[in-house]
TrEMBL record:
InterPro entries in alphabetical order: HotDog_dom_sf (IPR029069), YiiD_C (IPR012660)
Keywords assigned: Membrane, Transmembrane, Transmembrane helix
A Pfam family: YiiD_C
Classification lineage: Bacteria, Pseudomonadati, Pseudomonadota, Gammaproteobacteria, Oceanospirillales
Domain Thioesterase putative: 11-150
Transmembrane segments: 54-74
Name of this chain's protein: Thioesterase domain-containing protein
């Protein structure tokens, strides 16, 4: 098992203790490699009255995936930060009829460098991420979000 995987599993255990809702979403084992993060969820606890994925659950998993990516990245940089989503735009593309995943990747190095420059100089920074909710290879929803990190003092 890679260090990234151990870190993400420990992170998920910690997260479930911090945000009780997560324990009820049927989350699977995270896949994190230092550059991308995938979180999976079962349909059953996230179903709506039409038998498809509840939009709020899709939004929650996408928001959480981006938040977790920023948090994990900062922890790897030796930073202890509060991370919050500042704003986001959601686009629902197709219904979810089975288990689903949220996938995000870190942005290009230039954007990460700018982010870390702000963290170093101001103790805070903003990172924009794109997250996809997928059912298999089908994109069901996208989130474009701005996440803000503030160094804990």
């Amino acid at each position: 098992m890679s260090n990234y995987q151990q870190t993400s599993e420990q992170f998920l255990d910690w997260l479930k203790g911090q945000i009780p809702l997560i324990s009820h979403m049927g989350l699977g084992k995270p896949a994190y490699d230092g550059a991308s993060l995938t979180l999976s969820a079962a349909l059953a606890p996230n179903v709506n009255d039409k038998g498809t994925g509840f939009g709020g659950s899709l939004a929650t998993l996408a928001t959480l995936c981006g938040w977790a990516m920023v948090t994990l990245y900062l922890r790897e940089q030796g930073r202890d930060c509060d991370v919050m989503i500042r704003d986001s735009q959601l686009k629902y593309v197709s219904p979810v009829t089975g288990d689903f995943t949220a996938i995000t990747r870190l942005p290009e190095q230039a954007e990460l460098d700018t982010f870390m420059t702000f963290m170093d100089s101001k103790g805070r920074g903003r990172l924009n991420l794109n997250v996809e909710i997928r059912q298999g290879d089908t994109v069901a929803m996208t989130l474009s979000g701005a996440y803000v990190a503030v160094e804990r003092r």
